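User: Could you go from structure to sequence for me? I need the amino acid at each position, not a summary. Structure tokens:
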């Protein structure tokens, strides 16, 4: 792979088949010539799209946490003590001292 400055990388969005093969070799991944060519083409398309997105002026755009202008109404986090433990534990297979007993899974 060629050693270029980041500015030069932004101007050259083409990724070569040889670069894909070299990165795969460094990562110890087996890759054939056809797959490398396909990856090079697809990655070049993504890089071109990133270059296009980078050219968009976003100086006056506020960041969004959600693309929709709707908000989730959250309920108040208030503890409710309306759980009937005796009723719930009446259908449990095994209970002892108010706790559910479960089979041991680790010996």
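Assistant: Here is the amino acid at each position, in order:
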């Amino acid at each position: 792979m060629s050693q270029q400055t980041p500015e030069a990388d932004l101007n050259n969005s083409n990724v070569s088949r040889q670069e894909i093969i070299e990165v795969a070799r460094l990562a110890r991944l087996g890759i054939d010539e056809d797959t490398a060519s396909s990856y090079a083409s697809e990655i070049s398309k993504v890089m071109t799209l990133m270059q296009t997105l980078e050219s968009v002026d976003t100086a006056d755009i506020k960041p969004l946490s959600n693309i929709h202008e709707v908000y989730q109404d959250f309920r108040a986090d208030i503890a409710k003590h309306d759980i009937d433990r005796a009723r719930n534990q009446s259908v449990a297979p095994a209970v002892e001292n108010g706790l559910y007993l479960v089979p041991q899974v680790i010996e």
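One structural detail worth keeping in mind: Residues 6-54 form one domain.
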